[in-house]
Automatic annotation (TrEMBL):
Residues 217-226 have a biased composition (Polar residues). Coiled coil: none annotated. This is U three protein 23. Involved in rRNA-processing and ribosome biogenesis. Residues 154-165, 227-243 have a biased composition (Basic and acidic residues). It is found in: Nucleus, Nucleolus. Its main location: nucleus. It comes from Cristinia sonorae.
C-alpha cells in the first residue's frame, strides 16, 4: 500500500475510533461475493483487511451470507471453507434472505455494533453511505479499498464535535456527560424577553419594590412564600406547589399585570 493511501486510511480509522467508538479488533462483516473474489484472486483477505484497516480484525459472516455460498454448490467450496473460518454472526433471519438485505438489516439505522462491511455490492455500498459511521471496504481488481467517509458520517462527526465543544466550555474533563446538562441552560436564557416589561411594572407599583423581582430562586422560603400567598386567592392552591410552578405563575402574572396597566 502506498504511503499516502496508508496515511489517509490511518486517519480515517482514527476518525471512526475517536468519533464513533470503533475498537480493535475491528469486526468485519464479509459478504459472499467478497469471499469468492478473495478465492479467485488468491487474495489473503483477512491479512489484507488488517493492512487496510491498520489494526487487528475479526472477520465475521452472517448466516444468510454463508447460506448464499452454500447455494452455489461445490464449485464454491473453497469460498465456503474460507467463510467457515470466520466467526458466525447470528442475524436471526429464519428464512435466509439475500446477503445485501441481511447486512443492511444487521447494520440498521445506526450501526450500533460498529461493524466494518466488506462487500462487493455497489447497491449495498450506496445504501450504507446514508448511514453514519459505517466503514466499507471492497475489492477493485486485486486492491482492497477503504471508502472515504460518507457525508452522513462527516455530518455525524461534526455534530459530535459540537456537542463536546459545548461540554468543554463548562466542564473540561467530563466530556459527553456534561453535554447533556448544557441545553437546559440555553433554554433558561430564552425567556429573558419579559424582563423589560417587569421594569415598567416596578415604576407603576412602587410599593412592591422592596421585594426582589424574579430572583427568588435562592430565597424561595421567605420572599417566595410571601409572594405565593399574595397569589393564593387567585390560583386557589399554592403551598404544595414546587418552586418551578411558582416561578411560571409569577411570570404569567407579571405579563397579565402589564397588560392591565397598558389598558388603563
Ligand atoms: Zn441474515
Amino acid at each position: 500500500m502506498r504511503q499516502k493511501r496508508a496515511k489517509a486510511y490511518r486517519k480515517l480509522m482514527s476518525l471512526y475510533c475517536m468519533s464513533f467508538g470503533f475498537r480493535q479488533p475491528y469486526q468485519v462483516l464479509v459478504d459472499s461475493e467478497m469471499c469468492k473474489t478473495a478465492i479467485s484472486h488468491k487474495y489473503e483477505l483477512v491479512k489484507q483487511m488488517g493492512v487496510v484497516l491498520q489494526g487487528t480484525v475479526k472477520p465475521m459472516i452472517t448466516q444468510c451470507c454463508i447460506h448464499e455460498l452454500y447455494l452455489q454448490g461445490k464449485s464454491e467450496q473453497p469460498s465456503v471453507d474460507l467463510a467457515k473460518t470466520f466467526e458466525r454472526r447470528k442475524c436471526n433471519h429464519r428464512e435466509p434472505i439475500p446477503g445485501d438485505e441481511c447486512l443492511a438489516d444487521v447494520v440498521g439505522e445506526t450501526n450500533k455494533h460498529r461493524y466494518v462491511i466488506a462487500t462487493q455490492s455497489t447497491e449495498l455500498r450506496d445504501k450504507l453511505r446514508l448511514i453514519p459511521a459505517v466503514p466499507v471496504v471492497h475489492m477493485n481488481r486485486s486492491v482492497m479499498i477503504l471508502e472515504p467517509p460518507s457525508d452522513a458520517t462527516m455530518d455525524a462527526k461534526e455534530a459530535n464535535e459540537e456537542k463536546s465543544m459545548h461540554a468543554s466550555t463548562s466542564e473540561t474533563k467530563l466530556g459527553a456527560t456534561a453535554a447533556s446538562s448544557e441545553p437546559p441552560r440555553k433554554k433558561r436564557k430564552g425567556p429573558k424577553g419579559p424582563n423589560p416589561l417587569s421594569v415598567k411594572k416596578k415604576k407603576a407599583e412602587p410599593l412592591k419594590q422592596s421585594k426582589p423581582h424574579r430572583t427568588g430562586e435562592s430565597s424561595a422560603s421567605t420572599t417566595g412564600a410571601k409572594r405565593t400567598s399574595d397569589r393564593t386567592t387567585e390560583e386557589g392552591h399554592s403551598e404544595a406547589d414546587s418552586g418551578h410552578k411558582r416561578k411560571r405563575k409569577r411570570k404569567r402574572k407579571t405579563m397579565e399585570d402589564v397588560g392591565e396597566e397598558d389598558s388603563e
